[in-house]
Pitrilysin family protein (Spiribacter pallidus), 420 residues
Amino acid sequence: MELSIQHWCTDNGARVFFVARRGLPTVDSRIAFNAGSARDNTLPGLARMTSNLLLEGTAEQTAGEISQALEQHGARVEMRCGRDTADVNIRCLSHQTHLGPVFQTIGECIGGAVFPSDSVDRIRQRMIAGLAQESTAPMEKIEKGFTEAIFGDHPYATSPGGESASLQAIDPQRLRSFHGRYYVGANTTVTLVGDLSRAQAERTAEQLVAGLPVGERASALTPVNPPSGRLVSRLPFEAEQTHVSIGGVSLPYGHEDHPALHLGCHILGGGGLTSILARRMRRERGLSYSSACKLTAGAAGGRFQMKTHVRNEALSEALSVLRASLRELLDQGADTNALELARENLLGSLPLQLASNRDLLERIATIGFHGLALDDVQRFSEKLQQLDGEEVRAAMRRHLDPDLMATVLVGPELAISRVE
């Protein structure tokens, strides 16, 4: 599972990570700016609105002309903005007749975005409409509530989509100021995967970032601190089922215990019907069709989350099973069979996660942005093979404290008010 990752910096300080793959005449690329919603400060939604407006016009081209220039070469461009990064994702044919014009256009847009007032108003209304739609979806509601509960006053607690009031306060000048601060070479990571030589990759990367000033890299975020105690958040929502999330703060990217914690969480709630939660919640008690455990990382800290949705009348029993399953795993560890099943599942899925250029791009971009070792994929695989049950249990005990976790419930008020 070794990957040949090449790495260099552009003239204006952007870091570039490149993997050549010659199977298909395509190139997948990501331009990641350290400009996610954790940088919003007092205006939630500022980072995402800036990202959403990058292709809405430059001094030389309108949004329509930009769109046409990309479409005629069959390029696919997607903007994403999470808590750590604002990303521009590009897929394009690798022949220079297509690659050159597409990456030239993208480079001009990210370096020369002007944030026209009419586009700002249109994107603002689209984002506000998205907030209204999210408020009617229990899954969105519980994700937002869970994040706020575990991250507290950290910038990660703020939803990247912002709030209606803050979105209304964002004007073109604020967007230009944010863009000028964070969309600079020193704050940029470029990842390229596909049908390119090293020389072509160097030219392509320079095209993408040539319009950016050198600038300065954003300061590191303060680490996330766990809640000071156990808390329960109840969010009323009329439905036949209650959605449940239990969890807390976990590890940042690059932590040495991440493989062990990842394997432990997989034993608890990954791997389909073989996990502890799937067995106890579905097969043994019929409480829920879907119960899982999820572990995610971030630059300043991650999330450990057990989640399910159950009939309202079964809520108390389901909470007891979830909490008891975690405590039992922390106290006793996993049996040998469960450990080996989870290990085989994870190791077997790793090659599939790197099969396509797009999947590989995701992994390499993570390595590049978070400053992980270039052989991180190989190290992760080797560590998974070496871990024993006691090492997994010890890592979980070090980083997961049930007494410092949040329980978030989204369901009918009568059902969620009865449980602790």
User: Anything to note?
Assistant: The chain has 16 helices and eleven strands. The chain has two domains: 6-209, 231-416.
